Amino acid sequence: MDINPQLHPLEVNPKTGEPFLRLLSHKNIIITPPRLSDAPLYVSILNDERVIHWLSSPPYPYLLEHGEWWVNQAKPQSDKLLAELEEARNDPTLKIVDACPVGSIREVKEDGTDIFLGNIDITLAQQPWELEGTGRLSQPTPRRDPNDPDIWTLGDYLAPSHHGQGIMSDAFKTLLHQWGIPRMGVRRMVITTLEGNKGSVRVIEKAGFTFRKTIENAMQVRGTMRGVHVLDWSA
Ligand SMILES: CC(C)(COP(=O)(O)OP(=O)(O)OC[C@H]1O[C@@H](n2cnc3c(N)ncnc32)[C@H](O)[C@@H]1OP(=O)(O)O)[C@@H](O)C(=O)NCCC(=O)NCCS
Question: CATH second-level architecture of 5-234?
């Protein structure tokens, strides 16, 4: 198969044609585009107290229809990015794009099958405390002004069966350094975690971020006011 050089550093599964990013240290873990068949797999993970308690946006209980809604918007976004990269196939310089076409974390078994483990996504920050000090009230699209870098943020979760094995630390470092910085032009990130989320704070600190502050009662999450920790990074 003739691999599109614009996918670099993504690899392509020779059997399925699906692009993927392999984690730098956990070689049996890959990040692929979302698949329409994933929707039911989100349901058990996102209804688990060890996961949902630390996420602000998913509904609870998380139903199959929520998973279907999510994958039905995520898959076309990934397809659109891949089409954009295909269009640039013959361009000698690597195209800078607004997102990553892969975000679904999967463990590859010895027989070649894989299991869905979670999700990771770098997007433009939108929370007021993430944009604090930038003079921006929102970021509809990246500006890529070298003197005034866009603020990017992270969204992620992992199946509890795989917590504490260093997978998300590896996934975040891999995604940021292999795709975020070179292919999206990420130069600044501000990440919010819900107050008390020690695992997430460690993942972010281990990627080189500095703890900026804790804000009490910062946001309402499914009817309860929660505090947040804010962490910062600049290239
Ligand atoms: C946060 C989360 C993504 C971490 O993923 P993970 O793969 O388990 O994290 P890692 O194994 O890479 O651990 C990173 C560090 O955090 C520490 N850690 C992990 N879970 C922890 C916990 N519950 N309490 C304290 N420390 C924890 C690990 O010991 C490790 O630190 P170390 O290397 O200094 O020992 C995962 O726990 C998760 O999905 N949580 C629910 C959803 C969530 O919080 N998402 C983030 C939203 S901002």
Answer: 3-Layer(aba) Sandwich (3.40)
